[in-house]
């Protein structure tokens, strides 16, 4: 049994849970069932829909030290020996206490402090800046984009077909859209220029009905909320506009030429590295710049340039092969097997 400690809500959005679900799916194929340990019930529906069990701590998601007593009792009751943790709310004390009792694996992309864990996963494209190989010289490290935890649907997507012009445009905002970026994008772009515009609203997007009503008379604008098979929209897209986060890695796997923007500090390293590497152009941070103007300029730049889009698509798929979840699970299974051997 694999146990994962993570959370999801309107503040931290869906990213942590979604990448953990991808790992759970890979674990299932490897013969391991997964149980998710959550602070509250907000992620239950999403997790249960995918067929996984949950344990609810009934604690505050943003005060993880306060949950230790309850969690340790569950660890004892469930006989948990290996725990995968994915949350920005962890503290050194939290990880240190758990690591004295069980094998801990932590997914990180912030480098907030020295993590007292047994295995550290850092799959982001800017992982080298953290110098983890020197800091954690005696730890198990899973570093680099080959460990990006994506669902199996993103494996072997095949070479992207590049049209002469951008016909199908995909707009993405992630789990939340507190800055109303989707509405702003639809308002600013030349909608009639495209054959089809697919707009994907996240689970915590509050203006879905109003957005649908605003564009109900436009035959080429299609608005969806919290889709399960987002890869199907990526497969048909000629160009995507997306916030920073795991979605950019999904777009890479599909080879969809993309433009990124940011609205939170924890997205900045990601979008800037993609831009620096010449893979995904960065339009800016909505908090500090006119990203709509930048996005329009970039769309015009790519619109009738298939060679440029093909070059970007090639770089994207070269970076991400979609097998990251399996590689993480392979390590988790190895750790679990080693624990079992010591018991014999």
Tell me the structural class: alpha/beta
Main beta-sheet strand count, sense and barrel state:
7 strands, parallel
Oligomer kind: single chain
Residue ranges: pLDDT <50 for 5 or more in a row?
A: none
| Estimated share of beta-strand residues | 15-25%
Cross-sheet strand order for the largest sheet: 3-2-1-4-5-6-7
Topology as H/E string?
Answer: EHEHEHEHEEHEEHEHEHEHEHEHHH
Distance between the termini: 18 Å
Short structural description:
The protein has 344 residues and is an alpha/beta fold. Helix content is 39%, strand content 18%.
Provide a descriptive summary of the structure in words.
This protein has 344 residues and is of the alpha/beta class. It is 39% helix and 18% strand. The protein is built from 13 helices and 13 strands. The strands form 2 sheets. The chain has a 7-stranded parallel β-sheet with strand order 3-2-1-4-5-6-7, with helices on both faces. Strands 10-9-8-11-12-13 form a 6-stranded parallel β-sheet, sandwiched between helices. Strand 1, helix 1 and strand 2 form a beta-alpha-beta unit. It is globular. The two termini are 18 Å apart. The model has no long low-confidence stretch (mean pLDDT 95).
Write the layout of secondary structure elements.
Layout: E1 2-6, H1 15-29, E2 34-38, H2 44-49, E3 53-56, H3 68-78, E4 82-86, H4 92-101, E5 103-107, E6 119-122, H5 132-135, E7 140-143, E8 168-172, H6 181-188, E9 196-201, H7 208-214, E10 221-225, H8 230-236, E11 239-243, H9 246-254, E12 258-262, H10 268-276, E13 281-285, H11 291-303, H12 306-319, H13 324-343
Parallel strand pairs: 1-2, 1-4, 2-3, 4-5, 5-6, 6-7, 8-9, 8-11, 9-10, 11-12, 12-13
Helix pairs in contact: 1-13, 9-12
